[in-house]
Design a protein that fits this description.
By secondary structure, the chain is of the alpha/beta class. The chain folds into 3 domains: 179 residues, 3-Layer(aba) Sandwich (Rossmann fold), CATH 3.40.50.300; 35 residues, no CATH class; 211 residues, Nucleotidyltransferase, domain 5. It is built from 14 helices and 17 strands. The strands form 3 sheets. An 8-stranded mixed sheet has the order 3-4-5-2-6-7-1-8. Strands 14-13-10-11-12-15 form a 6-stranded mixed sheet. It has a 3-stranded antiparallel sheet with strand order 9-16-17. Helix 11 links the parallel strand 13 and strand 14. The longest helix has 18 residues. It starts with a helix and ends in a 14-residue tail after the last helix. About 3% of the residues have low confidence.
Amino acid sequence: MEVARAVFDSILHRKGLTFSVEIARQGGKNELSAHIEVLLLTMFIAKGGTSIKCSPTFKPQTLISMNRLRDRLDDFGYDGIWQAEFGYIIRLGAARQVFLSADESSNVVGHTADLLLEVDESQDINQDKYSKEFRPMASSTNATTIHYGTTWDDSTLLEQTKQLNLELEKQDGIKRHFRYPWEEVARHNPGYAAFVEAERLRLGDDHPLFRTQYRLLPLPASGRLFSRPQLAQILGTHTRLRSRQPGAVYVAGIDIAGQDEQLDDIILIRPQRDSTVVTIAEVVRTENKEPSLKIVEHYAWVGRPHHELYPSLVDLIKTTWNCARVLCDATGIGEPVASFLQKACGARVQPFKFTQSSKSQLGFDLIAAVNSNRLKCYAGDGSPEFAEFQLELEKARSHYRTNQTINFFVDPSEGHDDYLMSLALCIKAAQDALPRVATGSQRA
């Protein structure tokens, strides 16, 4: 109601204000948008007017917005009265609501918003696309504009609109930015409160997704992946193992490096050379849905020809640790290695291809495991493997992209990230390692 009143005051008095609205994920911003659209269509059913809403993609986001508006029109008694036109317009009498995609390849020039311009998920929309093609749609009529979304980093369209609005508020006192983090939504919805509390336990307060989607706090564009307290938290007290213990469940993550036929057989870390690294971890069931991991062993080979590695890798997977699940890097030169291991060891070995999206999910899962205290490494033993593992965690960097994905890596000038990637693959492997347990209660 607070947002809607401000928007309609700007529309009816032709103020042409631009608003920014941040509501925690699943907190009701799309429902707010649909109700505003229904009211505008109703108010201008005879006089006529056009509102435009753009979303980052036509499928599914634009289609979801259209379906929501149709449902709300039916709820308010307009079933059989509203009409659809051209697959992207909903008309009620002489009033129209136009839905457009803000994808960079879309052709939208020529539309005019004389009532309202809505920008959905503004943080995901290209700023040049908006400035050149959407913003001018409101110019001839000085139409009101709303940017909806959740924050990401300080370079997004939403964040820059928000900062400008906050500056303008200081000058004239007119509220233009509305922010409702998860605590505000939870005050009105106990079920939502319980869900988000569980997410906070699973991900941690400072996990990038929880921080942006629920706390509505922007991320730095780049920086260290782990803080000093997080690095300290990863250190465990358990002893490094050389073979499996009875009854324990183990998983492995394998990061595949290049090969050099001219190198000797080396199983230590050599600076400035990529390594094939295997991380072994024991999986421990917890009260939460996500398992805990205790890293118990590291293996590393520098420049070893892949065909010479096969017997060692198969022996580690099947005999030494009898791993329940293994995730193996299958990107580029890793693909034939992963394929061989899968044939030799069966379905327990799963190939993993690094893409922008899949690597991003690995990064989020890694951060979640650290934040929720579900990841521990064996106690320091003075070994080269332990030293390199700690160094890579310390040097690891993160870069948050505008499409809400993360890249994590070690800058080549500071070292390598073989242990880091092996660890991330190990955490992913653990998610399916334990058998599912059914829960229920005795029927009365």
